[in-house]
Amino acid sequence: MPPSPSGSTDLLGGQVYVFLLSILAGDAVGLLYDLFRATLHPGRRRGWAADLLDLLFWLLAALLLAVAMILGNWLEFRLYPLLGAAAGLALYFGLASPVVYGALVAVRRAAVQALQGFLGRLAHRWVGPLRRRLGGSACRAGRRLLRRLPRPSRRWRRLGLRLRRRLRGSRRRRR
Length: 175
Hints:
By secondary structure, this protein is mainly α.
């Protein structure tokens, strides 16, 4: 039983309705979080794109909760809708999130593999004949161009090797 537009949610049925709606809103925010978490690779969360997706997530989550509050109790601020949303999040992350997140990651991997296969076939179909027509001259020109580019000096190479050795040594010590 939805509350009346005047905002009266004094009846127990109206309060139960608002509480259950806020639980569903919490579940929806949890699902939205899993969607964004599955979209981004966990080891590559850097840069402006990840920050932009974080901002988009929080905007969508706030919008979703605001719509649930408007539908449930006409933005009348009470504690039990917030507790309902927290309970919905806890239920979702306790029960459904491991299964849903695993399925979303599997779908993401399958989509990436399909896209890589499509782009590989496309490159093989279009770039291969072009390379055969140009012959080895394009490859030789590219190698010549790379030879003319300046290489890092020996001093910088040694510094890089020292840093790599130190990092490898610190990794071994941690284990």
